[in-house]
Amino acid sequence: MIEIRGKCVICTQRFLTHNISALHCGHIFHYDCIMQWLRCSLTCPTCRAFCDTSQIVNHLFFDDPDEHNDSSLLASPTSQRLHFAEEAIRELKNSLHRKEEEVRYLKDSHALAKIMAERESLKNAQLSKENALLNAKNKEMERKLETAKRRQRELRDLCDVWEKPLKERLRARNNATTSRVMEKPRENADSRDVLPKRRTRRPLADRKNGCQEDANLSDSKEEEQ
Known about the structure:
Number of strands: 4
Radius of gyration: 68 Å
Distance between the termini: 205 Å
């Protein structure tokens, strides 16, 4: 193989005669390098001119006087077809690899979506269970509240039933006590009128004064006689 002066600006490796391609602007590169470059950017790596894969000169051939047989074999149509077939196979392998990567990515994304869907379904199931428990608790609380209200009404009715006779009894008892209290002073007054008056004893000073008055009265009567 002939080694040509210069390097590929993409991979910085020297050129060999069996792997050289050119663009319409005249710059040369390795075939694999320029194909990979044009998948990312549709410009020439050297002059930035617009180009695509249809404008690539796939192979450039150079004669080597020392290796005339090899160059003639390389320049023969059969060798060219074989080389083109190898390049096509390589390109197909690369595309197959890219497709496999895409399939793997899709599988991973599908698996991730499936996992997320399962997680969401589990979360929804848990939320539904919690909602069912809360509804059951609410119904139980409502039932207890209704029972408490019913018992309260029953107790109120019982209180109303027992309260009226108790009030009547208390009222009758109060009336009886008030009538007794009002009748006692009258009885005491009547008993005072019926019983004889008790003679009260005067004090000693009053008695002495009374005796002195009696003596004076008797003296005055004697003088008159």
